[in-house]
Fold each of these.
Amino acid sequence: MQVKDLADISFLKVLSDDATLDNEIKDLYTSDLLSWVMGHVHQEKVALLTVLNTINAVAVATLLDMSAIIFCEGVIPTDDIIAKANEEGIAILVSPASSIATAREIIKHEG
Amino acid sequence: MNELSLYLLDIMQNSIKAKATLINLDIIKNIDEDKLTIKIVDNGCGMSEEVLSKVLSPFYTTRTTRKVGLGLPLFKELSELCEGSFKIESKVGVGTTLTATFRLNNIDLPPFGNWVDTFYILVINDEDVDIKYTHKVIKNNETKEFVFDTIEIKNILDGMSIKDFSLMQWAKDYIKNGLEEIDAI
């Protein structure tokens, strides 16, 4: 699955540059404790679902070679987060739904 | 890091990497004010104003193996999440002082975790680095205090290594009992 496939889900909105649309997503991970994410994500190209509106989320995504961050529950990332994510080639998406509801929809969409 | 002890390990290891020979660690659990204060003062090489202005950015690191440095940014984030504050001061050739506060009853404040073992890892990490650890508990206007000072311990040991196995067990029990006595953790 690629980021552009997620754009087909009606309630998901991509905020990062078009260059991130081709990012491949191999798995999803949801957590709101970044240090926990650092210790438990052992795969590349994961999409992180979180409500943590912080530049540290982009740093962790960079460290772990993640492909996307999906800010859930209506959290809108600040401009500096989006700019840094674009610089690092990480897709930024937003969802009004909870992390689990968003993940459920993505899994359903993937078939 | 889901334990405060792991944050402290990471940050105090920064002091050791900065060639500190003395680290003062003060932890104050003020139940009356619902506040936890953690202060780390080292006499390491210190940081220039330029480095200090970047050190809280997760995309700044002195490491060459990766492009992000998350120890300080995550600790700062945790203190803010727990309705506290975070301050870091540094001067080249003098050292660095870090002060973080947390609201004790904040639901997101992680536990200390295995603090005794974690602290002792720091003690034996480098025998040339001395650590003066003071833990205070303030309750009903009464202050109880536990102090573990490696300079004092080394004086008593008179040349025996602080890494000696029999001593390690004694020291860990001493710290554990001392902290339990003042209801620190």
Amino acid sequence: MAEARKDSPIDLAEDNRGELLADVERGLYDFKDEERDEDFYKVDEGLTEDIVRRISEEKHDPDWMLDFRLKSLKIYNELEIPDWGPPIDGLDMQHIVTYVKPKTGMKASWDEVPEDIKNAFEKLGIPQAEREALAGVGAQYDSELVYHNVRKDVEAQGVVYTDMESALTGEYEEMVRSHFMKLVPPTDHKFAALHGAVWSGGSFVYAPPGTKVEIPLQSYFRLNAPGAGQFEHTLIIIDEGADVHFIEGCSAPKYNVANLHAGCVELFVGKNAHLRYSTIENWSKNMYNLNTKRAICEEGGTIEWISGSFGSHVSYLYPTSVLKGDHSHGEFTGVTFAGKGQNLDTGAKMIHIGKNTSSFIDTKSICKSGGISTYRSSVEIRKQAEGSKASINCGSLMLDSESRSDTVPAMDIRTDKADVGHEAKIGRISDEAVFYMMSRGVSEAEARAMIVSGFANPVSKELPLEYAAEMNNLIKLEMEMG
Amino acid sequence: MADNILKIQGLHAGIEGEEILHGLDLEIAAGETHVLMGPNGAGKSTLGNVIMGSPVYNVSAGSVIFDGEDITKDSVDVRAKKGLFLSFQNPLEVPGLSMEAFLRNAIRERTGKPVKVFAFKKKIEETCRLLDMDPSYVERDLNVGFSGGEKKKAEIFQLLILEPKLAILDETDSGLDVDAVRTVSKGVDIFKQNGGSLLIITHSTRILDALKVDKTHVLVNGKIVKHGDSSLVDEINTGGFAKYTEG
């Protein structure tokens, strides 16, 4: 982000305190509140073993997966819901089963899709047939061909790209078994446990040593599969020296009848391997997006997260990079746009374990029409991680005075031999810049949209062209909405 | 086209609680080049901003007629679409937005039609050549990290791309090195050759040397105290504004 200067389109207030807010960090994933309140949540009314067994049966799980689900269920029932982030009271935890019942809502028709989602599709110019498929309500849409073409191309290089269900019972079962929820254990937090119990759908990728996948792998089509996209599990294993770019989701709004999304992403980056994981999420505005994403890097490995968070009512999203190997590197570039009725709590977490590891966080958050955008991050440099470097740069842009932007950066540095930099800026669009742009013939709305798109440009420029274009469209749509 | 590209009548304007322009009249015939001079604080930049429609200023009385139409109540972008252009004294920076993308959007909004990519590219290239500017200019973020001279050159570049009817140049020549003055003069000259009208707000005369000035106006304390021809520029260069500010 540019320096705060007088002639910038964004009036910036600097906040370079760089305080150590270790206390906040503790709350990030620690949900183990020992205090039990009997009235708070009754297991009987919620998710039962019976339901989990049924899900497992319908999915033809191997036995170990059924065991895993049941263990997760037990953990789920023991954990409390988080109380440190945006309120999730609207989520009916008493009837959590209504969210996880297989095929819930898949009978819904296009008519039931909310107007704003329909309009968004309309404006994005996505054809009707595809729209219905994206909304998860059109079973007739045939994406198979596209999917198979992508797969063939990738297979030729020895890379495995398949759905989780196939991976679970095929020749990669052992690999799945030894990695599945090892990085994000069900004990991590209540919704990770829920995920472990009822997960369904998602992608499995294995890139053998030295493979380089030129085109990005996209999970776009797979998420249309019935039952997927809500508790989907993504497991990606990049072997030594391999290089992959994976794109999750789609920039077009996804619509699910159920309004809870608790997906899980686990990324294993091998020695000197490179993985870029890009996401543009635009859930419908009633969604509770409680997603957990984590990567672990071996020696010399690199993980790059590119993340765009647009939709949802409430989001908790903090992709984590565990820099385990020496000289491993983690990067997070993200933009979050919180509009009316949205409370988006997003950020990143970097854990430096290996020596000479480095991390870089660059986030932009935008809020408008009363939206709340909170940037929450945690950088942890362990004692043995000597010679490590971490840099955090977070910028917020508030588009009006009713919106709110908070920055909660936590740092826990256990060695003197580390270099940590933090910079936070909060700004508003300057009227002078809008006047300047309007004097060239652009409308006020367009001028503002251009300033906001420019602000988000560090993210969009990292995306493939069509995604970047759609992200800019999304920004424009959000700007137009009241 | 109206005989007058700009006609200002009895204009009173200012910021809240403070009137800066106290009943100002000004006429510019189509195709003419006018110079507005005046001491610091006379209201020169205010006038430029008020003509463009800056929301910072209130117009309490009078009118601005542009090309035969009363634009006093028009929004800034509507005025721009009608063919008005203001070159800023301090052009603003927009990170993440290239000048090329900005101009493409501006043209699309001005014409209401998608921009023809090839023709647009060609025009960009030609204009770069005419102004002897490095084409990489247009790919850089709008004014971000530009030197003072580069910013002024970029303003003139935009002027030639957008082809307005009347350009108000607010201190476009101040603080420029010789090279930038040459580029700006050249650009202004091309604009004039193509039939553009000009209101040049300045306290220096460097870019005026090469231009044929039709009329000169002296603004003091929010009022035009003297209208004259190009010889008035020389007179002020020699005698300053003292004659007009005293008494």
